[in-house]
Design goal:
- The mean pLDDT is about 75.
- The chain is an alpha/beta fold.
- The protein has 2 domains: about 30 residues; about 90 residues, Nucleotidyltransferase, domain 5, CATH 3.30.420.10.
- Helices cover about 35% and strands about 20% of the residues.
- It has a 5-stranded mixed beta sheet, covered by helices on one side.
- InterPro entries: Gypsy_RT_Integrase-like (IPR052160), Integrase_cat-core (IPR001584), RNaseH-like_sf (IPR012337), RNaseH_sf (IPR036397).
- It comes from Sesamum radiatum.
- This is Integrase catalytic domain-containing protein.
């Protein structure tokens, strides 16, 4: 009986660690999705973009949003205050504050927001840069 109990416990432990079981088990036993680490081997190689807001109270200039970019390698941050965030503003921010100052990055990582994933952004990345920028979503 003791050998059976140990064997049963061993089988359960093995099943919990089995990769197919982790993929098809109930969600409580598995991570939300496979992780895709982003490795930046050089400064200004990969940037993360995010928008913050609306923030209250308004600033003295009437801005209630912040558009922020962080370099993955050096953790260098750049942020600008905005009255409203538009897709054209995001493209202009990338062009002026990232590409013109630090060069064309390999990756731009964003959340799945409409500000970052739209035709304006896709067209700019595809047509305006000489190298390929990869747009990645974190969610």
């Amino acid at each position: 009986m003791v050998a059976e109990a140990t064997t049963m416990e061993d089988c359960l432990e093995y099943a919990k660690k089995c990769e197919p079981r982790q993929l098809y088990a109930r969600f409580i036993h598995q991570p939300p999705e496979p992780l895709h680490p982003t490795v930046a081997s050089w400064p200004f190689d990969a940037w993360e973009l995010d928008s913050v807001g609306p923030i209250t109270p308004k600033s003295s200039t009437g801005c209630i949003y912040i558009l922020a970019a962080t370099d993955y390698f050096s953790k260098w941050a750049k942020a600008v205050p905005l009255e409203e965030v538009k897709k054209e503003t995001v493209v202009d921010f990338i062009r002026v504050n990232i590409i013109f100052r630090y060069g064309v990055p390999w990756y731009i990582i964003t959340d799945n927001g409409r500000l970052f994933h739209n035709k304006s952004m896709d067209n700019y990345v595809r047509n305006s840069t000489s190298s390929n920028i990869t747009l990645q979503c974190t969610t």
